């Protein structure tokens, strides 16, 4: 079974989902693709979502609140990644982008070993259903522009501004 619960955050209502293996969903409740992401998670896990509590929810809520106050820069949560092997490799790569920094889709493609996979990497970023924790908001256009984000560009900018404020980094070189 996959337990699901709603949570209010400074960036809006979000959905938390957990299995006994870890957090499998933390995404914006009103995201356009939330239904397809949830369907993928159900299909890959062989389980259905059901409203309820899970011990991982308290851990997630505590850490996300610390993130929003600027006191947490890395998450220490068990994650249950449910996607294709390629998607999982992209999401694991996102976890390597340090707090307060950004990478372009091209840089992420090179990091993953295939410079020509820019569109595929962007597609896998878009399928990330564990927002903020797997920091797809840290991926930007090669020209430094804020491109696509499932939660909307205003939330992406807000998250990047929060991280810049608390990272001690001020230059344009590391952040858009």
Q: Could you describe the 3D structure shown?
A:
By secondary structure, the chain is α/β, with parallel strands linked by helices. The chain folds into two domains: 2-69; 85-167, Arc Repressor Mutant, subunit A, CATH 1.10.10. Helices cover 39% and strands 17% of the residues. The chain has a four-stranded mixed beta sheet, with helices on both faces. Helix 4 (105-111) crosses helix 5 (118-126).
Superfamily (CATH H level) name of the largest domain: Winged helix-like DNA-binding domain superfamily/Winged helix DNA-binding domain
Spatial strand arrangement across the major sheet? 3-2-1-4
Count of extended strands: 6
- Under the CATH scheme, which architecture of the largest domain would be assigned? Orthogonal Bundle
Mean pLDDT: 92
Helical content class: 25-40%
In angstroms, what is the radius of gyration?
Answer: 15 Å
Helix and strand succession?
A: EEEHEHHEHHEH
User: Strand portion, in percent?
Assistant: 15-25%
What is the total domain count?
A: 2
**CATH hierarchy, class of the largest domain:** Mainly Alpha
- Helix/strand-derived category reads alpha/beta
Sheet having the most strands: 4 strands, mixed
Globally, the shape reads globular
Q: Which consecutive residue ranges, at least 5 long each, have pLDDT under 50?
A: 171-176
């Amino acid at each position: 079974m996959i337990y699901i619960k709603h949570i209010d955050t400074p960036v809006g209502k979000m959905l938390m989902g957990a299995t006994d293996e870890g957090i499998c969903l933390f995404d914006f409740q009103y995201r356009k693709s939330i239904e397809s992401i949830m369907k993928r998670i159900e299909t890959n896990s062989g389980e259905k979502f059901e409203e309820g509590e899970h011990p991982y929810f308290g851990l997630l809520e505590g850490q996300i609140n610390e993130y929003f106050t600027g006191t947490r820069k890395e998450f220490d949560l068990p994650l249950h990644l449910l996607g294709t092997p390629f998607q999982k490799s992209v999401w694991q790569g996102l976890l390597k982008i340090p707090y307060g920094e950004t990478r372009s889709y091209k840089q992420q493609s090179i990091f993953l070993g295939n410079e020509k996979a820019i569109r595929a990497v962007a597609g896998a970023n878009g399928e990330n259903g564990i927002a903020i924790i797997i920091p797809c908001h840290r991926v930007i256009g090669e020209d430094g522009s804020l491109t696509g984000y499932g939660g909307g560009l205003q939330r992406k900018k807000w998250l990047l501004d929060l991280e810049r404020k608390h990272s001690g980094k001020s230059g344009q070189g590391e952040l858009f």
